[in-house]
């Protein structure tokens, strides 16, 4: 099979969000909120356990009153903000305005780091004439993150769940993405870190390859094997 297009997930695949500790610290600095270092650490741990950082650790438990919102959080900007600020409100912060400021912070390019091999892999695929798409379950526009980190030029299409009201693993979102690349699903490889959501691409005939959702410094070359895989005959899958 000749791969004509590659779809990449965003969080945990091409980029990784900052730590909960750095996330909270940045917002406290931005707002001029002074807390003892030990208190910052305690609150960051509680926010992480609550799953309040999008792209970070999942919640240990979703409160019953947020269950429906959480299940469909990536279908709209309102639901996404409501779900994550709702989780954050399980932690008592010193200022009620901090919940929205934390949510806003996670959308900033400064909160994200590309994996070390992301740029090289995207550029190599582009040179080979492979069409590149980004397909993400998300509630906000991630394009500025790609532009700020110099990766936007390699991306041919973005398919974001909140813009379509559909979230992975719904096969319809993957069909939209393949159409955006102008490629038959059987000629497309989906690369992601979520074995439930990203596996939905297989339902329409895409090959699927998984990478590990690790901190940036712990995964220096998780994407690079794709380049050798595309040179091999047959259908990549892992």
From TrEMBL:
Domain of life: Bacteria
Sorted UniProt keywords: Hydrolase
InterPro entries: HAD-like_sf (IPR036412), HAD-SF_hydro_IA (IPR006439), HAD_sf (IPR023214)
Molecular function GO terms recorded: hydrolase activity
Name of the protein described by the UniProt record: Putative hydrolase of the HAD superfamily
Organism: Pseudonocardia cypriaca
């Amino acid at each position: 099979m000749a791969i004509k297009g590659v779809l990449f997930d965003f969080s945990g695949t091409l980029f990784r969000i900052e730590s909960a500790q750095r996330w909270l610290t940045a917002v406290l600095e931005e707002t001029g909120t002074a807390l003892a270092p030990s208190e910052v650490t305690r609150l960051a741990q509680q926010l992480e356990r609550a799953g309040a950082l999008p792209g970070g650790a999942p919640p240990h438990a979703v409160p019953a009153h947020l269950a429906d919102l959480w299940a469909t959080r990536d279908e709209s900007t309102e639901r996404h903000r409501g779900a994550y600020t709702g989780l954050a409100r399980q932690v008592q912060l010193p200022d009620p305005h901090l919940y929205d400021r934390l949510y806003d912070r996670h959308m900033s390019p400064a909160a994200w780091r590309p994996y070390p091999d992301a740029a090289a892999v995207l550029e190599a695929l582009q040179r080979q004439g492979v069409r590149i798409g980004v397909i993400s379950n998300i509630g906000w526009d991630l394009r500025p993150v790609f532009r700020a980190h110099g990766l936007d030029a390699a991306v041919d299409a973005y398919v974001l769940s909140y813009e379509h009201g559909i979230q992975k693993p719904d096969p319809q979102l993957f069909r939209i993405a393949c159409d955006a690349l102008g490629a038959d699903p059987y000629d497309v490889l989906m690369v992601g870190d979520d074995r439930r959501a990203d596996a939905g691409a297989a339902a329409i005939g895409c090959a699927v390859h998984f990478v590990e959702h690790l901190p940036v410094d712990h995964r220096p070359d998780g994407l690079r094997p794709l380049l050798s895989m595309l040179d091999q005959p047959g259908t990549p899958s892992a």
